[in-house]
């Protein structure tokens, strides 16, 4: 019954015209549709074995939206104007080709301006991806900020050598926001008080080490398969599929 309803909803996408949506409506619509499409593709074609095969699947699987065929790669690279190759360099060539081949018809669906925060909202089903949550136009910007905060609190850590561990996705985002030397202090703004205290204590106790050395290390993007779901708006209840 649920599958039948899902198929009906997918069929109804052909009658939707995203070009008439507001900016917030577009953001919520495309983020939610992206997750539905990625999960549908994994169920239909199987879990990809590596990042390149995943992006190939993202280009292959598509829905018809407003009479146009739209893939998950189209949503991420063209419509939301994102560049996943910044933290997944293995797909740089494929992303560049994807952007080059995007149709003029699809471009009428794009958001007005490239938004950085959706990097913390889109999950392509990899271990280092953010958790999946449902977005609505009414509070999409608030939820995007919360998604970034949740991601930082869930992924930043401290190594045995006393360095702050920063996931590659966060580091790539932060390059356009803050200098590397100030990154740990900037991260503390989004941590819980207990987490922030631990990071600050770590930084303070290691100031004597190699003057000028970077106080953090960047964790590589983990490409193991996993979907992490947020089951409530508070971000406290999690469920995962891996």
Please give a structural write-up.
- It is a single chain.
- The protein has 242 residues and is mainly α.
- The chain has ten helices and seven strands.
- It has a three-stranded mixed sheet. A two-stranded antiparallel sheet has the order 1-2.
- Helix 2 (23-45) packs antiparallel against helix 4.
- The chain is elongated.
Q: Can you describe this structure in just a few lines?
A:
It comes from Gossypium aridum. This protein has 242 residues and is mainly alpha-helical. The chain has helices at 2-12, 23-45, 51-60, 72-79, 92-101, 104-107, 140-155, 168-174, 183-188, 193-205, and strands at residues 62-65, 68-71, 157-158, 164-167, 216-219, 227-230, 238-241.
Task: Spell out the key features of this protein.
single chain, 242 residues, mainly alpha, 3-stranded mixed β-sheet, 11% strand
Topology diagram in text:
Layout: H1 2-12, H2 23-45, H3 51-60, E1 62-65, E2 68-71, H4 72-79, H5 92-101, H6 104-107, H7 140-155, E3 157-158, E4 164-167, H8 168-174, H9 183-188, H10 193-205, E5 216-219, E6 227-230, E7 238-241
Parallel strand pairs: 4-5
Antiparallel strand pairs: 1-2, 3-4, 6-7
Helix pairs in contact: 2-4
């Amino acid at each position: 019954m649920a599958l039948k309803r899902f198929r009906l909803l997918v069929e109804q996408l052909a009658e939707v015209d995203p070009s008439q949506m507001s900016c917030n409506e577009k953001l919520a619509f495309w983020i939610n549709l992206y997750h539905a499409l990625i999960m549908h593709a994994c169920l239909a074609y199987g879990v990809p074995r590596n990042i390149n095969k995943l992006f190939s699947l993202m280009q292959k699987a598509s829905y018809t939206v407003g009479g146009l065929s739209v893939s998950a790669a189209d949503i991420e690279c063209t419509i939301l104007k994102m560049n996943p190759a910044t933290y997944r360099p293995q797909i740089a060539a494929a992303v560049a080709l994807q952007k080059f081949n995007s149709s003029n018809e699809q471009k009428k669906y794009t958001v007005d301006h490239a938004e950085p925060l959706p990097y913390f909202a889109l999950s392509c089903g990899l271990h280092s991806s953010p958790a999946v949550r449902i977005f609505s136009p009414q509070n999409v910007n608030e939820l995007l900020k919360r998604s970034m905060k949740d991601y930082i609190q869930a992924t930043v850590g401290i190594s045995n050598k006393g360095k702050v561990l920063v996931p590659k996705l966060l580091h790539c985002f932060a390059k356009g926001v803050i200098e590397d030397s100030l990154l740990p202090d900037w991260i503390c703004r989004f941590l819980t008080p207990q987490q922030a205290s631990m990071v600050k204590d770590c930084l303070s106790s290691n100031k004597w080490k190699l003057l000028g050395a970077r106080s953090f290390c960047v964790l590589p993007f983990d490409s193991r398969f996993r979907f992490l779901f947020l089951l409530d708006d508070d971000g406290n209840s999690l469920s995962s599929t891996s």
